[in-house]
Structure prediction request, 256 residues.
Amino acid sequence: MILQGKKILIMGIRNKWSIAWGVAQAVTNQGGEVIFTHHPMENMEKLHSLLSEIPGAKTYPCDAASDESIQEALKLVKQNHGKIDGILHCIAHANTDDLRNDFIKTSREGFAHASDVSAYSLVATARLAKEEDLLNENASIVALTYFGSEKVMEGYNVMGVAKAALEASIRYLSKDLGVDGIRINAISAGPIKTLSAKGIKDFGSILDIVEQRAPLKKNVTQVEVGNVAAFLFSSLSSAITGEVIHADNGFSITGA
Prediction:
């Protein structure tokens, strides 16, 4: 098992359909211990029911729009679990109107909100994790992104711009973190039926197009994305940093 003895913090757990849960399962299957953070407004009864499937799993409240909340969550993680070996950033949000309307109608407030929660929160997390001395030597940070950061995807709108900022941030963070031996990468996952995906107009048609055009003729699963994340958290990927790895059955390399 490639993550035996490693502790991975998964930031942004919501439900069993999320990519975060797929990563949690993959990490556990590879011998790792998972720790979670959740938004303070999440339904705790449902969340605890989900986490009961992983014996001993703990979750801590964290509002990614607040440096103070991020810092408090990271302090609690270190206090209760010691130093960790990896962080999964699976936090993103945009206002519904800014996803449903044409991009040109994006409000200033909506643009700032999507960028803050979806991109800047990664920068804040990386900085605060260093300040709290939370990360072990050779730790790995992984973030989630999507092809809408590279190409215009109908209905993705301001989130595509926020994810582009996330990916650029990863490249710059790789330089700053690399001096301490810490790696940071992103997984550009193909479309998956998550709760967040319901906010994207005509999401079902996107899934159909991927099945038709992807070289492997299928959509990616939570488990497959989780396995890529497990690889990036492991020493097998020790020479990889600053990269965006596509886990989309090849869809991103196809033409029109």
Q: What stands out?
A: The longest strand covers residues 135-145. Residues 225 and 247 are 6 Å apart (CA to CA). The radius of gyration is 17 Å. The chain has one domain: 7-251.
